[in-house]
């Protein structure tokens, strides 16, 4: 028979590791993509955007699924009421962060393609890249803030 305490500790560990990968990949990718773009070095931008898109699929997408799965299982194991305010707020803010992230994925793919095209043709980045870049930044700020708030809610569990 399974030990609920061991189950909880293992699931909590998975939750923490996946949140670290989710947030760490997101902030790291954003950092490099931001500064590669600001450099206006088309070759650097092409390499960084290609790697950011890959990292998003490998780490962000997988952990974005693992987070709610482990979170809901911990809620079940710990016996927290699903309607607890800190849980409801966490879910709502996580959905907000996801609503920011989904268009960011599309933008990053388009930005990657535009940068690759510029390298192939030895041309500057198309103006569309910079329009996408502004939207990418505008969506990244609330997503980052959302995760900071979620981390606080997970730690503090205010009632």
How many distinct helices? 4
Question: Count the strands?
Answer: 0
Order of helices and strands: HHHH
Structural classification = mainly alpha
The percent range for strand residues is: under 5%
The radius of gyration is: 18 Å
Number of domains: 1
Low-confidence stretches: none
pLDDT averaged residue by residue: 96
What gross morphology would you assign?
elongated
N-to-C CA distance? 33 Å
* Helical content band: over 70%
Biggest sheet descriptor: none
Question: What is the structure about, briefly put?
Answer:
The chain is mainly α and 159 residues long.
Describe it for me?
By secondary structure, the protein is an all-alpha fold. It has one domain (4-156). Helices cover 88% and strands 0% of the residues. It contains 4 helices and no strands. The longest helix has 37 residues, at 42-78. The radius of gyration is 18 Å and the shape is elongated. The mean pLDDT is 96.
Brief descriptors of the model:
about 160 residues, mainly alpha, about 90% helix, about 0% strand, elongated
Could you outline the blueprint of secondary structure elements for this entry?
Elements: H1 4-39, H2 42-78, H3 85-121, H4 127-156
Helix pairs in contact: 1-2, 1-4, 2-3, 3-4
């Amino acid at each position: 028979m399974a030990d609920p305490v061991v189950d909880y500790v293992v699931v909590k560990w998975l939750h923490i590791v996946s949140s670290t990968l989710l947030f760490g990949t997101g902030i790291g990718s954003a950092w490099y993509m931001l500064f590669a773009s600001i450099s206006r070095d088309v070759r650097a931008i092409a390499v960084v955007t290609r790697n950011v898109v890959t990292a998003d699929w490998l780490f962000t997408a997988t952990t974005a699924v693992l987070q709610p799965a482990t979170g809901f299982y911990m809620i079940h194991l710990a016996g927290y009421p699903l309607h607890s305010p800190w849980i409801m707020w966490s879910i709502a803010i996580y959905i907000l962060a996801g609503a920011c992230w989904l268009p960011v994925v599309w933008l990053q793919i388009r930005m990657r393609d535009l940068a690759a095209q510029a390298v192939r043709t030895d041309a500057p980045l198309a103006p569309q890249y910079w329009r996408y870049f502004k939207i990418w930044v505008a969506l990244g700020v609330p997503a980052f803030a959302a995760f900071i708030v979620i981390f606080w809610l997970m730690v503090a569990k205010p009632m």
